[in-house]
């Protein structure tokens, strides 16, 4: 009975290291690992030992006979990947252990942020005997987007917090909640108390949609919508008005799909999840019948991933539809094939999500508040105005500058080389200063993608420690 990886895979690779026959691909040492939409078990070599099931932090792996009806598609998705994957070695890859020179005192590392990148960095530092880690988080709740981003109905994904709890409980880790670096404590002060500081501050702002009308009331960035339904402190009063029939979401990444699903699914199915009580109340009174998710490119370039599309199409009580002409000519592939099997938007009644393609936003319509949005066709003449009572921009996140650190405003990240923060003018590294996660790479990738990213940053830090490049601690207060 082979095992199957399902939708909640966060790609941290724990299963790969647990598997005795290396049947899970891609492996973290493979260049395609970072871009993979999920991991896949080869049904022809799986020995059914279940080691991967215990290793997975989000219960994403199941024996094939125990798949729920809405998960059956993942059996074929896992198998198809392996039909095309090149042959692999029999043994799973082994990550080299950190070799740390003894410098006569325990290594002290401060980590700013407490999201996945921060805690995976902490886990790696704590493999060094005697090393001490202090984590500083500005919110009163830890784990970053695991609480504040992951959708409340994605219960299995949110279970990754149990893995983070285990890292947090390490006796050589101290967590300071409600401390913002740059406001409550300076970078210099941190460097006096630690040999090194790792910034894992994420990318908390939204990318702005630069079109006329984008500032009208009724246009909301995804960051606000997500904070609202996840009950982030202060987001209760976000003006989410659902007293009309249609919402248009600009952008078609996984965040867009999350928002569309939360707006359209049965509120009773959300009750008991981590959704904010105020948001549930507003959703119960919602009159919205259709959410249109508008991508600017063709379906073969959709930013959402296949596992999330599979999950969306099996949301009870919601029909997911397409405009067939917008799929014409798109090359076949798992996503496009699945989209082609969906119903046509013409016949849509009831609660529905319409996935549109090839629409570039031009102008938000309305005078006092939004009444719709005008699109041009991206690769053809013509355009279309869509009526809407609310427009959500889900066009990606963006980092904010951290006081005392350089900032790459074009990319919205902390400029770095392999995790070492560098002065963009000279290219010289800032002593003892490192970056990991979305603040290092930009806002893309799954929770687990940050694990290898943080391990690479810690490897750079240890190299600098071994080379004697870290300054001594001058204060222990
Ligand atoms: C809406 C949304 C849903 C997602 N859903 C999924 C999903 O279902 N599955 C999945 O695998 N991935 C998901 N992701 C991606 C995943 O959440 C990210 O890959 C991951 O959280 C990035 O980790 P990070 O540690 O770099 O940043 P974050 O998780 O953002 O953590 C950064 C932390 O730093 C803190 N911080 C910032 N500045 C300071 C400061 N100056 N001082 C102190 N603390 C500070 C912040 O408060 C925050 O806690 C989602 C992303 C989004 C946006
Ligand atoms: N369940 C999950 O696993 C989950 C859930 C949420 C998020 N995440 C991850 O978190 C990361 C961030 O997700 P995201 O959805 O915020 O970002 P994203 O995947 O980068 O998608 C951004 C979308 O915005 C579009 N866009 C950008 N600029 C635009 C503009 N000016 N006008 C119109 N459209 C524009 C992009 O189109 P183009 O492609 O044409 O640029 C794309 O469709 C992703 O890696 C995602 O997979 C995962």
Automatic annotation (TrEMBL):
<keyword id="KW-0479">Metal-binding</keyword>
<dbReference type="InterPro" id="IPR017900">
    <property type="entry name" value="4Fe4S_Fe_S_CS"/>
</dbReference>
<feature type="domain" description="4Fe-4S ferredoxin-type">
    <location>
        <begin position="1"/>
        <end position="29"/>
    </location>
</feature>
<dbReference type="InterPro" id="IPR055275">
    <property type="entry name" value="Ferredox_Rdtase"/>
</dbReference>
<feature type="domain" description="4Fe-4S ferredoxin-type">
    <location>
        <begin position="37"/>
        <end position="66"/>
    </location>
</feature>
<keyword id="KW-0408">Iron</keyword>
<keyword id="KW-0560">Oxidoreductase</keyword>
<dbReference type="InterPro" id="IPR017896">
    <property type="entry name" value="4Fe4S_Fe-S-bd"/>
</dbReference>
<dbReference type="Pfam" id="PF12838">
    <property type="entry name" value="Fer4_7"/>
</dbReference>
<keyword id="KW-0521">NADP</keyword>
<dbReference type="InterPro" id="IPR036188">
    <property type="entry name" value="FAD/NAD-bd_sf"/>
</dbReference>
<protein>
    <recommendedName>
        <fullName>ferredoxin--NADP(+) reductase</fullName>
        <ecNumber>1.18.1.2</ecNumber>
    </recommendedName>
</protein>
<dbReference type="Pfam" id="PF07992">
    <property type="entry name" value="Pyr_redox_2"/>
</dbReference>
<keyword id="KW-0285">Flavoprotein</keyword>
<keyword id="KW-0274">FAD</keyword>
<dbReference type="InterPro" id="IPR023753">
    <property type="entry name" value="FAD/NAD-binding_dom"/>
</dbReference>
<keyword id="KW-0411">Iron-sulfur</keyword>
């Amino acid at each position: 009975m082979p095992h199957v990886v399902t939708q909640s895979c966060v790609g941290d690779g724990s299963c790969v290291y647990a598997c005795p026959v290396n049947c899970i691909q891609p492996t973290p040492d493979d260049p395609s690992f970072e871009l993979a939409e999920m991991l896949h078990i080869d049904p022809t070599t799986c020995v059914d030992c279940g080691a991967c099931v215990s290793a997975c932090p989000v219960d994403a792996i199941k024996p094939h006979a125990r798949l729920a009806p809405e998960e059956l598609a993942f059996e074929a998705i896992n198998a198809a990947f392996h039909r095309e994957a090149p042959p692999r070695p029999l043994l799973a890859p082994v990550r080299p252990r950190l070799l740390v020179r003894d410098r006569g005192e325990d290594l002290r590392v401060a980590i700013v942020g407490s999201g996945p990148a921060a805690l995976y960095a902490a886990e790696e530092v704590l493999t060094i005997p005697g090393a001490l880690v202090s984590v500083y988080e500005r919110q009163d709740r830890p784990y970053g987007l695991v609480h504040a981003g992951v959708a409340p109905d994605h219960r299995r994904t949110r279970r990754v917090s149990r893995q983070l709890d285990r890292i947090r409980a390490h006796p050589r880790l101290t967590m300071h909640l409600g401390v913002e670096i740059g406001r409550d404590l300076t970078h210099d002060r941190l460097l006096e108390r630690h040999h090194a500081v790792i910034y894992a501050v994420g990318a908390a702002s939204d990318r702005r949609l630069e079109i006329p009308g984008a500032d009208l009331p009724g246009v909301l960035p995804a960051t606000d919508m997500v904070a609202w339904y996840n009950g982030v402190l202060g987001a209760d009063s976000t003006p989410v008005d659902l007293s009309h029939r249609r919402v248009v979401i600009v952008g078609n990444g996984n965040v867009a799909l999350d928002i569309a699903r939360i707006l359209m699914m049965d509120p009773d199915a959300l009750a008991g999840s981590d959704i904010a009580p105020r948001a549930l109340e507003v959703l119960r009174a919602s009159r919205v019948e259709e959410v249109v998710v508008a991508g600017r490119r063709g379906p073969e370039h959709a930013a959402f991933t296949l596992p999330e599309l599979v999950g969306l199409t099996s949301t009870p009580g919601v029909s997911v539809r397409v405009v067939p002409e917008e799929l014409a000519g798109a090359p076949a592939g798992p996503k496009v094939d699945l989209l082609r099997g969906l119903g046509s938007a013409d016949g849509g009644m009831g609660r529905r999500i319409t996935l549109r393609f090839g629409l570039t936003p031009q102008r938000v319509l309305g005078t006092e508040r939004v009444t719709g949005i005008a699109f041009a066709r991206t690769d053809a003449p013509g355009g279309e105005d869509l009526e809407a009572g609310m427009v959500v921009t889900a066009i990606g996140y963006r980092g904010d500058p951290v006081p005392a650190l350089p900032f790459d405003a074009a990319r919205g990240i902390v400029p770095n080389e392999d995790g070492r923060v560098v002065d963009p003018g000279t290219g010289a590294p800032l002593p003892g200063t490192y970056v990991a996660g979305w603040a290092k790479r930009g806002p893309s990738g799954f929770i687990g993608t940050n694990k290898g990213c943080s391990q690479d940053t810690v490897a750079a830090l240890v190299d600098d420690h071994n080379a004697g490049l870290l300054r001594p601690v001058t204060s222990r207060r």
